[in-house]
Amino acid sequence: MPTGHVFIATSLDGFIARPDGSLDWLMSADHAGEDHGYDAFKRDIDAIVMGRGTFEAVRAFDAWPYDKPVLVLSRTLAATPVPETLRDKVTFADLTPQAAMTHLDQQGAARVYVDGGQIVQAFLREGLIADMIISRIPVLIGGGRSLFGPAGGDIHFVHERTDPFPSGLVQSRYRLRS
Ligand SMILES: NC(=O)c1ccc[n+]([C@@H]2O[C@H](COP(=O)([O-])OP(=O)(O)OC[C@H]3O[C@@H](n4cnc5c(N)ncnc54)[C@H](OP(=O)(O)O)[C@@H]3O)[C@@H](O)[C@H]2O)c1
Fold first, then answer.
1. Ligand 1 mean position, distance from CA 55 (Å)
2. Would the CB of 145 count as within 6 Å of ligand 1?
3. Suppose 116 and one of 48, 51, 160, 165 were both cysteines; which one would form an S-S bond, judging by CB atoms 3.0 to 4.6 Å apart?
4. In the chain, pLDDT over 90 holds for what percent of residues?
5. In angstroms, what is the span from residue 60 Cα to ligand 1's centroid?
6. Substitution site in 5, 12, 16 for ligand 1 pocket (most atoms within 8 Å of beta carbon)
7. pTM above 0.85, yes or no
8. CA 136 to CA 10: how far, in whole Å?
9. Ligand 1 neighbour 21 (Cβ under 6 A)
10. What atom in ligand 1 is closest to the CA of residue 58?
């Protein structure tokens, strides 16, 4: 079975997006000249699994940002065709986290980037996240879409390291405690 890996940014109060999904608080943070390791992280993964919410946000970007296969989990989108321009890059499916990982295993993926708040929570509940890199932006946005939520029990991680950056971004790395 592939392992799941999270690389995500949150506000200081733990949100990954405003209630309407906007990321202005993240995009406007001035990180000029800082390498937070995102490119290295993306090079090291074989596939990406994301929720419909994340897909809809990424789709609005000027350019498609991934060069690895993307599996979008959605009951809504599974019944619709993938847009023409993304047909060789994206698959829509209505799968449980376990079934998604089995599918990606059959595609030869070993390391899977898991993205989107609800999707990360669903994968955490099923024990499918091996490690998380969380970058905290020093801004309180007061509400929005949470990275974490009810988990059905405690999930323990080992803190590996925390790196502060001049912009005020603080990045922490955790791996699932075995
Ligand atoms: N700050 C960051 O680094 C960062 C990173 C990623 C995303 N984001 C932002 O976060 C927002 C999206 O996150 P989100 O938490 O709202 O949504 P999400 O996790 O991306 O997607 C949730 C959707 O996925 C579908 N889904 C399929 N299987 C599911 C399952 N087992 N559990 C839960 N959902 C499942 C559902 O859509 P159906 O109803 O169609 O089934 C659900 O509404 C966007 O605004 C995006 O820009 C921020």
1. 8
2. yes
3. 51
4. 92
5. 15
6. 16
7. yes
8. 5
9. yes
10. 47
Give the helix/strand (H/E) hosting 85.
none
Distance from chain centroid for Cα 89: 17
Residue with tokens 């990360």: 120
Per-residue pLDDT of the chain (178 residues; tens, 9 = 90+): 999 999 999 999 999 999 999 999 998 887 888 999 999 999 999 999 999 999 999 999 889 999 999 999 999 999 999 999 999 999 999 999 999 999 999 999 999 999 999 999 999 999 999 999 999 999 999 999 999 998 889 999 999 999 999 999 999 999 999 8
What is the DSSP secondary structure assignment for residue 65, as one 8-state letter?
Answer: -
> Which one of 27, 38, 52 would you pick to mutate in the ligand 1 pocket, going by the greatest count of ligand atoms within 8 A of its CB?
52
Q: Which has the closest alpha carbon to 49: 106, 107, 8, 90? A: 90
Query: Hey, what amino acid is at 127?
Result: G
How is residue 135 written in tokens? 């970058």
Residues in CB range of 135: below 8 A, 6 or more apart? 8, 9, 10, 36, 169, 170, 171
Report how far residue 60's alpha carbon sits from residue 150's, in angstroms, rounded to the nearest whole number: 29
